[in-house]
Every structure is written in structure tokens, then in C-alpha cells.
Design goal:
The chain has 342 residues and is an alpha/beta fold. It contains eleven helices and 13 strands. The protein has helices at residues 12-22, 42-45, 80-89, 106-113, 120-125, 131-140, 149-163, 193-196, 210-222, 255-262, 312-326, and strands spanning 2-7, 27-33, 70-73, 93-96, 127-128, 143-145, 172-178, 201-202, 228-234, 241-248, 269-271, 289-294, 301-308. A seven-stranded mixed β-sheet has the order 8-9-7-10-13-12-11. Strands 2-1-3-4-6-5 form a six-stranded parallel β-sheet, with helices on both faces. α1 links the parallel β1 (2-7) and β2 (27-33). α6 packs parallel to α11 and α7 (149-163) packs parallel to α9. The longest helix is centred in the middle third of the chain and has 15 residues, at 149-163. The protein is globular and about 60 Å long. Catalyzes the NADPH-dependent reduction of N-acetyl-5-glutamyl phosphate to yield N-acetyl-L-glutamate 5-semialdehyde. Residues 3-141 form the Semialdehyde dehydrogenase NAD-binding domain.
Length: 342
């Protein structure tokens, strides 16, 4: 059994981790930290976990995280980098679901996240946890930077095209929409029900924190920098990301076959039949990314539709998938969850 600690278990990502790990046959939850809610039973805060998680939240100073096999950070940006070195020195593996270790260019990270990085040397060691690209590196990793939700959906949609050199890499467009849970479990006016319901809006058009992460990932696949316009939107739903991706085709190819072959051995990427239109509800609660590829009117534009649950494949589910890889378990362990419908 893997002894597991979770730092910051009171947010949406934290409760999703708890839901998945509570049903994981090789996971033993040892500690779930919260400074503000120490002593509160987890099932009191999250009634859905009653009968599945019997622990109480504990103060980080009393969590004995150094006795765990792996620690997940489900915390705001800037927290994991303060504690990771001590855990690694104690022989604990770390999976950070925030952005502290995702971007290799420290100056770029500090520009977008507005703080000084506490351990830039560990950024170089951290493995970017997109299994469909970095599986072998993840197996050996001590520290995994779990990808963001938008970057997961966008990269999985563009990767086959860039690997095959089939699109003009200087003019990619990602038009992406996210449910409100992507903003986290906090009280902010833009995500209040009366503000977000019955409405639809773009945000971060001038620049979003996930933009450098996506560019970095796509450049690593393509072998040189790519040009990307990324526009996120807030939609009046709780879960889900829908990314509509555009590229200019450089040469003719069977795009359907390309995607099917690229992801043929990827359990958590489902390439739909030609002509399909994936819906966010088709992945709700699951670790799946569902993809459809189109070439409207047979023209020179390829359109890829990519959908995920932002809290699962976009966060907690992918983190558990990475844990499974790191400890030599089948990737599907604890993740064989059928999507919820309706």
C-alpha cells in the first residue's frame, strides 16, 4: 500500500483527489492538511465522502508528511515550492497540482505568477506530468509537475499534428471554455451564481497564465517554438473544458487515421469516429480526454475538438495517473470511472 499525504485538501481539486484515492486499491490516505480547518472531519466538510474517508484535517506541522511515500500538493501557486525540498530529502515523491514546477524558464514563471521562485534548481529536475508525452520520464521522477487543465486539453489536441509536421506551427489558435470550478473553491464575485449563470464570456485575452505552459509543451513536441493564440472563456457549468483548436494544414494526410494511431495505446484518450462532436458531459467525472478531428469543407483548416473534466484529467485524475506510473502500477488503477450522465 502507498502511504499518501495531501497538502491542501479543502478545495475542489483536493476533494477530487480524495474521491479517487478513497477508491484506489493501493492507496492509504495518511494525512490531509488544512491550517484553517484542522480538527474538522473530512466527511463533515464533504458529505459525499462519508463512509469512505474517516480522517480529520490536520495542521501541516502535525501531518508527518515525511513518513509518506508520495505527497500531493493541491494548494494555490507558491506553496509547494516552499516545502518540496524537505520532502524530497526525506525520500518522499511529490506531485504538485499547482504551477510551481511547470515552466522551465524561471524568469517567465516569475513574470506570469508574480513571485520569486523559492527553489529554481528543482524546476530543472521536475518532470512535466503529461503521460502521453513523458511517460518514461515520469516513471523515474521524484517530482512531477502536474499539467494545468487548459494545457492538457489543448496539448492533447495539437500534439499529433505537430509531431507529424502537418500544420503551420506559427499560427495555432486555441479557443477554450471552462466550467466555473476551474476558478477554485473560493468566494469571488465573477464566479458567484448570479454573475456566472446564464452568461458566457472570454477572459485573459491579453494573456493567461496557462499560455506559456502550453507553448512550452507544444515547442517540446515540435522541436522549436510555436505561435499560439489562446483565448479562455468562462461557461455557466460546474465541470468541463471544451477546447476548439485551429491550425492551417501544410500537406494532405488522413487526419482521422493520424489521431487514431497516435492515441491507439492511450487508455485515457478516446479518438471519436469521423464527424463526431464531443460533449463535456461525456467525460464528466472521468479521466478521459475525448477528441474529434475535422477538416471543414475539405479546406486547408483543421479543427480539433478536445474535451476533458477539468477536475479529473485536468487535475486530480491525471495526478493519480502519474502516481500509478511513478510506482509501477497499471495506469488505470483507481481511475476506471464511467462518466456521469446526465
Amino acid at each position: 500500500m502507498l502511504k499518501i499525504g495531501i497538502v491542501g485538501g479543502t478545495g475542489y481539486t483536493g476533494v477530487e483527489l480524495l474521491r479517487l484515492l478513497a477508491g484506489h486499491p493501493q492507496a492509504e490516505l495518511r494525512a490531509i492538511t488544512s491550517r484553517a480547518d484542522a480538527g474538522t472531519p473530512v466527511s463533515q466538510m464533504f458529505p459525499s465522502l462519508r463512509g469512505y474517508v474517516d480522517l480529520k484535517f490536520v495542521h501541516p506541522d502535525e501531518a508527518h508528511l515525511d513518513q509518506c511515500d508520495v505527497v500531493f500538493f493541491a494548494t494555490p501557486n507558491g506553496i509547494a515550492m516552499q516545502q518540496t525540498r524537505a520532502l524530497l530529502d526525506a525520500g518522499v515523491r511529490v506531485i504538485d497540482l499547482a504551477a510551481d514546477f511547470r515552466i522551465k524558464d524561471i524568469a517567465e514563471w516569475e513574470k506570469w505568477y508574480g513571485m520569486t521562485h523559492a527553489c529554481p534548481d528543482l524546476v530543472a529536475e521536475a518532470v512535466y506530468g503529461l503521460p502521453e508525452v513523458n511517460r518514461e520520464k515520469i516513471r523515474q521522477a521524484r517530482l512531477v509537475a502536474n499539467p494545468g487543465c487548459y494545457p492538457t486539453a489543448v496539448q492533447l489536441g495539437f500534439i499529433p499534428l505537430l509531431e507529424a509536421g502537418l500544420v503551420e506551427a506559427g499560427s495555432l489558435i486555441a479557443d477554450a471554455k471552462s466550467g466555473v470550478s476551474g476558478a477554485g473553491r473560493k468566494a469571488e464575485i465573477p464566479t458567484l451564481f448570479s454573475e456566472a449563470a446564464d452568461s458566457f464570456k472570454a477572459y485573459g485575452v491579453a494573456g493567461h497564465r496557462h499560455l506559456p505552459e502550453i507553448r512550452q509543451g507544444l515547442a517540446n513536441v515540435f522541436g522549436k517554438p510555436v505561435g499560439l493564440t489562446f483565448v479562455p472563456h468562462l461557461t455557466p457549468m460546474i465541470r468541463g473544458i471544451h477546447a476548439t483548436l485551429y491550425g492551417r494544414v501544410r500537406k494532405d494526410a488522413d487526419l482521422q487515421a493520424l489521431f487514431e494511431q497516435r492515441y491507439a495505446n492511450e487508455t485515457f484518450v478516446d479518438v471519436l469516429p469521423a464527424g463526431s462532436m464531443p460533449e463535456t458531459r461525456s467525460v464528466r467525472g472521468s479521466n478521459l480526454c475525448r477528441i474529434a478531428v475535422h477538416r471543414p469543407q475539405g479546406g486547408d483548416t483543421v479543427v480539433v475538438l478536445s474535451v476533458i473534466d477539468n477536475l479529473v484529467k485536468g487535475a486530480a485524475g491525471q495526478a493519480v495517473q502519474n502516481m500509478n506510473i511513478m510506482f509501477g502500477l497499471p495506469e488505470t488503477t483507481g481511475l476506471n470511472v464511467i462518466p456521469l450522465l446526465p
